Amino acid sequence: MVEAVQGAGVVVTGAGGGIGAALARRFAAEGARVVVNDLDAGKAKAVAEEIGGTAVPGDASTIVDDARDALGGTIDVYCANAGVGTGGTEAAEESVWELAWDVNVMAHVRAARALIPGWLERGSGRFVSTVSAAGLLTMIGAAPYSVTKHAAHAFAEWLSLTYRHRGIKVHAICPQGVRTDMLEATGTAGDLVLRPTAIEPDDVAEALFRGIEEDRFLILPHPEVAGFYQARATDPDRWLNGMNHVQRTWEAGR
């Protein structure tokens, strides 16, 4: 059992399935009191009943107050997990870009805005962002997703460097392919890039808990992402050439 989360009040957004449900189950198994959030009220209720938690359905951007009330007044851990896997190029409709920005970035900002003052006052709190390896690297065929996941990672970094000396812990989870509905929605691009090394949602939860125990910011359920991230930083042109090769392979196979 991880002592840091035993008895903690935890909120997991987008927890009706996939990574969110796996996180909710793991926190509950570790002795936390869990609020399960999802836009789909039925899915949120089903997971909450399974783990002995509380369902607070609705838009992840607006549920902090209700979740806090459900936990008796205090949120100790907030998992900003809800996301949208929007594909497309620069030509994607404005509404597509706006949705990706709102869910993948601004929902995190709004949650932090509601949580940080109280956490600073008491000197503790834990913010978990489900980002994606796309936030460190990129994803072919998915400009809105890649760009907003980079922003989500940047915001998590900013929170960590700004508040870590004041007791606030931040973790950024950056997996590649995970066997969820979102992976199914990535189509042929996901088949090429993500599916061959896809892992289970429970593996992501396990990686997070190892990171909590080791007090690490960056959580890499696919350890090889560290090497890709380093290569991108040290020789960006070589890395971009390699990714362009993947892009051309994808285009030729469509």
From TrEMBL:
Q: Give the EC number(s) listed in the UniProt record.
A: 1.-.-.-
Keyword Chloroplast recorded: no
Q: What class of enzyme is it?
A: oxidoreductase
Q: Return the SUPFAM superfamilies for the record.
A: NAD(P)-binding Rossmann-fold domains
Keyword Hydrolase appears in the UniProt entry: no
Q: Name one GO molecular function term.
A: oxidoreductase activity
Q: Which InterPro entries match?
A: NAD(P)-bd_dom_sf (IPR036291), Sc_DH/Rdtase_CS (IPR020904), SDR_fam (IPR002347)
Key words, A-Z: Oxidoreductase
Q: Check the record and name the Pfam families matching this protein.
A: adh_short (PF00106)
UniProt family annotation: Belongs to the short-chain dehydrogenases/reductases (SDR) family.
Q: What is this protein called?
A: SDR family oxidoreductase
